[in-house]
């Protein structure tokens, strides 16, 4: 009868429809722009050939945090690869990361499980001691994580995942490429491997 | 009086949709038990990492833990909708034979997927592994063949529901429900493709995870809740429907762009910091509205209901949804805070309370409604044998258990973000340093203890579900009578 307008069923039905439709339109428009900006080869997500170059971290005073930079040639496993080969390597690396279920212990870009450390900046982690030793150490570790375990006293060891040498190399390529992604300063205050001394 | 109160008295036996729903509920509870068993193993592995090392590693255990949860909740939702569809549409289920076949195919597929998870576990770094073993993407690990199977099963389910409503009566609840199911099924497609680009991968992956859990699932339980309130306490349909529209407007109004709070750190542009921060901060608003709505309606009917366990679990849902999804989500949704908490035990603290509070609770509530009818529409209000101690203890232990795990994980999460991120410089050695601090380990210890409490609650819950109402001679309490005496 004298029902106030704000409790009217019909008004809220229309409101629900229009709000939902409006938000969907905004999301779709933003999605076009976002996908463009995160396609490999963009400013934020570099091309896969970045594995041919040195990737390092630099403080960006304008943005107020560290950002990845791409430096001089520093080929992975001593070999410059072309665009197709680089993409093939990163692709195999990503497939291996999925097939071995890495994400259910580790986080990648901060997403996954929390039983093992984040892999976003694995390539730049100071645990690898020196830039010139890093890639061989990584390949050796991935192939025999039990013997090369470094648990830092937690007792948590990576299990044996039957990773072959080509798979291990491709994972390293994937991790190197991933470290070059602009993650808006995540992880916060990251302290990279001592940089540039061996180059 | 409402429609619902009229037909309570007339339909004594479960209809075909409801008989099918019972199958889904049994499957859901089996998977719930599996979720808890694997959860307890994973909790133990944090404390004793040698347990099942190289046999059933944490990665496998945790994958089964979360996958069992996703699937049991989906099966619970599907069951709940089969349960209410004939009642809401006022017509028999369309394609009931196909629906029954669908259940067995889905159950067989889930069984095969879990057996492969447990006994094959991993494969070589080839597409073949993604197709046959596991996709290695959190929450939606199911291999590609199963993805396609799931889409087919969901389409059959959708056909059953939409066709039944089209043949029978449309209502506000069924309108929202059907549109929501279209979105829910469509979104799954966004998570089915391989790309080497991890940023693109996670961008679309969140379309499935976020737009399911924080948008379409929430609206789905809003529909189930609306129907549940009409059923348990005889709430007025017009008021319930109006509330449902308000909830949809607020839920999609905040939740769709709230997707942006997953786009802070995965390579996506900086404007998501603002958009994601703002809209996700609004996400608790509809959850407050849902609490107000449920409690107000229940209070208006003097908290008298024809099914006490179901009403108790519906109220647990309203609060659990608000605290788990709303408060715990809001605590770390702003980018300034999330920068430190993203990818730490904060997320698991939030995850435990949110999934339980928002979704487990309401599925349990609907199962109690189903059990009541399956046992012959018997009395399930006050004065149950033994004062209904089993359902009360199950309710208490499950809620205390999950809340305890949530608090314990929150302490660990605080430690981790403080020591690893704020002090340690986010390196691997900082990560491990944080994992060993006394307070982090205390959190992990108490999480295990409360995991046992949760397991005890589940055991009593299942016992109660198998026994409640058996041998009960009194008929169901009449809502008309309850409403009049309120």
Task: For the structure shown, list the relevant keywords.
heterodimer; A: Cytochrome Bc1 Complex, Chain D, domain 2; two-stranded antiparallel ribbon; 11% strand; B: 486 residues; mainly alpha; Cytochrome C Oxidase, Chain A; 18 helices
How would you characterize the overall build of this protein?
The complex is a heterodimer of chains A (199) and B (486). Helix content of chain A is 38%, strand content 11%. Chain A is α+β, with helices and mostly antiparallel strands. Chain A has two domains: 5-38; 48-179, Orthogonal Bundle (Cytochrome Bc1 Complex, Chain D, domain 2), CATH 1.10.760. In chain A, the strands form two sheets. In chain A, strands 1-2 form a two-stranded antiparallel sheet. A two-stranded antiparallel ribbon of chain A has the order 3-4. The longest helix of chain A has 30 residues, at 9-38. The model of chain A has no long low-confidence stretch (mean pLDDT 93). The model of chain B is unreliable at 1-10 (pLDDT under 50). Chain B has helices at 3-8, 16-47, 58-89, 96-119, 127-132, 144-167, 172-188, 198-233, 237-258, 271-282, 284-300, 308-331, 335-341, 345-374, 389-423, 428-436, 438-467, 479-485. Chain B has a single domain (3-485), classed as Cytochrome C Oxidase, Chain A (Up-down Bundle), CATH 1.20.210.10. In chain B, α3 crosses α8 (198-233). The radius of gyration of chain B is 22 Å and the shape is globular. Chain B contains 18 helices and no strands.
């Amino acid at each position: 009868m004298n029902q106030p307008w704000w409790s009217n069923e019909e008004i809220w039905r229309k409101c629900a429809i229009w709000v939902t439709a409006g938000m969907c339109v905004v999301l779709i428009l933003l999605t076009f722009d976002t996908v463009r900006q995160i396609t490999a080869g963009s400013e934020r997500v570099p091309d896969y050939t970045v594995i041919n170059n040195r990737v390092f971290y630099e403080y960006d005073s304008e943005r107020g945090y560290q950002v990845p930079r791409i430096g001089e040639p520093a080929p992975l496993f001593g070999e410059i690869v072309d665009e197709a080969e680089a993409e093939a390597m990163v692709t195999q690396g990503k497939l291996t990361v999925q097939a071995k279920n890495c994400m259910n212990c580790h986080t990648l870009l901060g997403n996954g499980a929390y039983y093992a450390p984040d892999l976003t900046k694995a390539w730049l982690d100071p645990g690898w001691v020196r830039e010139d030793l890093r890639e061989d150490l990584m390949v050796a570790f991935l192939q025999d994580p039990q013997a090369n375990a470094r648990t830092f006293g937690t007792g948590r060891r990576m299990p044996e995942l039957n990773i072959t040498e080509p798979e291990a190399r491709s994972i390293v390529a994937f991790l190197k490429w991933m470290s070059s992604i602009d993650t808006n300063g995540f992880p916060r205050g990251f302290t990279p491997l001592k940089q540039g001394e061996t180059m | 009086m409402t429609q619902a109160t009229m037909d309570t008295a007339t339909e004594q036996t479960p209809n075909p949709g409801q008989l099918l729903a019972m199958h889904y509920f049994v499957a859901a509870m089996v998977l719930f038990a599996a979720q808890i068993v694997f959860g307890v193993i994973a909790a133990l592995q944090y404390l004793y990492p040698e347990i099942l090392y190289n046999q059933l590693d944490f990665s496998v255990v945790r994958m089964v833990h979360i996958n069992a949860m996703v699937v049991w909740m989906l099966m619970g939702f599907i069951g709940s909708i089969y349960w209410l569809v004939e009642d809401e549409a006022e017509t028999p289920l369309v394609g009931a034979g196909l629906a029954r076949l669908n259940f067995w195919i889905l159950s067989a597929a889930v069984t095969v997927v879990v057996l492969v998870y447990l006994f094959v576990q991993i494969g070589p770094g080839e597409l073949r592994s993604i197709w046959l073993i596991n996709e290695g993407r959190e929450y939606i690990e199911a291999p590609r063949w199963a993805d396609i199977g799931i889409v087919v099963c969901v389409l059959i389910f959708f056909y059953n529901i939409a066709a039944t409503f089209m043949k029978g009566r449309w209502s506000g609840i069924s309108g929202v429900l059907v549109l929501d199911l279209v979105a829910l099924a469509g979104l799954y497609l966004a998570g089915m493709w391989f790309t080497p680009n991890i940023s693109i991968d996670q961008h679309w992956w969140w379309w499935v995870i976020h737009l399911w859990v924080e948008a379409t699932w929430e609206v789905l339980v809003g529909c189930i809740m609306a129907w549940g309130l009409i059923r348990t306490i005889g709430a007025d349909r017009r008021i319930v429907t109006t509330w449902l529209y308000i909830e949809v407007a607020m839920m999609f109004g905040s939740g769709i762009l709230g997707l942006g709070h997953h786009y802070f750190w995965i390579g996506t542009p900086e404007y998501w910091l603002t958009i994601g921060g703002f809209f996700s901060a609004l996400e608790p608003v509809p959850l407050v509205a849902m609490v107000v709505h449920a409690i107000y309606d229940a209070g208006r009917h003097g908290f008298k209901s024809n099914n006490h366990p179901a009403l108790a679990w519906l109220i647990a849902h309203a609060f659990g949804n608000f605290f788990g999804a709303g408060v715990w989500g809001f605590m770390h949704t702003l980018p300034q805070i999330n920068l430190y908490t993203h990818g730490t035990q904060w997320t698991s603290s939030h995850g435990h309370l949110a999934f339980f509070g928002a979704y487990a609770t309401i599925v349990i509530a609907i199962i109690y409604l189903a059990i009541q009818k399956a046992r012959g529409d018997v009395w399930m209000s006050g004065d149950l044998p033994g004062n209904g101690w089993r359902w009360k203890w199950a309710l208490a232990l499950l809620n205390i258990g999950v809340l305890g795990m949530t608090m314990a994980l929150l302490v660990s999460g605080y430690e981790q973000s403080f020591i690893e991120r704020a002090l340690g410089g986010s390196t691997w050695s900082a990560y491990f340093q944080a994992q060993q601090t006394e307070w982090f380990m205390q959190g992990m210890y108490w999480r295990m203890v409360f995991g046992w409490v949760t397991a005890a609650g589940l055991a009593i819950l299942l016992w109660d579900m198998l026994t409640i109402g058996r041998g009960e001679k009194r008929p169901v309490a009449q809502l008309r009578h309850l409403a009049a005496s309120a």
